[in-house]
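Loading example: each entry is read as two labelled lines plus one structure line.
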Amino acid sequence: MPIDLFLPNQFLIVLLSSLFAALAASFLGAFIVVKRMALVGDILSHVALPGIGLALLVNIDPIYGAAAFLLLAAFGTWFIEKKTALPPDAVIGTFFTATLALGVLLVPNQELFESMFGNLFAIRFYDAVVIVIASVAIFVLTLILSRRLILSIAAPDLAKSIGAKPDNSYLCFLLLFALSVALGIKLIGSALMGALTILPAVSARNLSWSFKSFLSFSVILGVLMTGSGIIIARVFDFPPGPSVVLTGILFFIISLLFKKS
Amino acid sequence: MSQLDYKHYRNHEHSAKSILEVRGLSVSFDNQEVLKDVSFDVDEGEIMAIIGPNGAGKSVLFRALMNLISYDGGIKWRADVQIGYVPQKLFEKAELPLTVKEFFILKSKNLFFKDKRLVESIFHELKSVGLKPDILNQQLINLSRGQFQRVLIAWAILGHPNVLLFDEPTAGIDVAGEGSVYNLLHKLQNERGMTVLIISHDLNIVYRYADKVLCLNKEGLCFGEPKKTLTSEQIERLYGESAFYRHAH
């Protein structure tokens, strides 16, 4: 098979799928940070646990169980936030405690650890194809949505005044984000997925002079931190998740030097 | 038609020139009435000021007029009306690194691709609010209040709406700057025949610029020409006894 020429071994499969997952996550992360939902992303990722547990019980790929629960939680968050005017972090926090309890009940110990901290090297070729295609789709959809999304974040009333529907853009955004988290869980796990969304964006915020540069830096840094993190993990035989996150932290510290106060 | 002729004409053909009719408008949030039975008319090309104390429902009225919230009663805009809206403020804290240019592009109907016509009209609108093109690359958060106000106005009039809803900031524009923003609104009314509805906190401005005034304190307390309508008793009724205002003729 000619594709084997490009993907000769497990390491490249891991590297490629991680880079694409990072592309989607760090792009969405930029919006997460300016909407002040940084912790929401972190918490949302744990919502996947019971989905993973259920998927394991009925013997299907955990990534689909995670995706189903995440999408459900994203929709639920949107709906409850709209109905009650509770802030999104409070709503997602409620989901989180419920699902963490369920997750611990449902997920066997070894699997629980894996879903919280990922297991890059369990990725197969087929998983990588799904991750790459889904990540590109998420990235493109977010790009198309971005003007409406920025306006909805900056000024919901202005958005409505020109006939946009901020509620709908927000829902699409949450669903895209839930999907991107589901992809990342397989790779670096739910505990560290939050870092992959937040870290590139906060570093990019320190470097940027416009929204375009902010988005670009966020994606570039996300891909860079993931790539170098995984290579470092490979060379020094570290677990990849923490290695990626710590590389991101290093980028953040460097970005502080560029911040004009 | 000169401005005088136009006013004359307008007075005689009142109903034909009406651009907005509001009848018995009420708005409630959680069973609390925020607006109660408000009625008024606006003619094309008029400046109408809306005044009232804090919490009188002025911004709520705007939101109802833009059909952003549900209400009881009737709001009838003329069929060809396009509304431009100038909010009091945008985001609370400076989280978004938006440049002025990027902010304008958000108004594009194109979700993704470049909108050449829009970019060209941005230059035109910047000029008409008295800003130089080099402001386009500055970030919104670095603008002075006066500049920011003008950017918001330029954003609202981009695409040439025929009605402008202007929610004046409660504080922060210095008097000299304020005068010029109102001159600007007046200019837009004159040159483009725009109808302007303005929520104002400054009665001097109302006397100077408005053709009509609506006093609002949950219900409409008075409506008409400022000089006839805004008697000192009326103002006292509207703002309470603490209000101190002397109208210098």
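Residues 1-7 of chain A have pLDDT under 50 and may be disordered.
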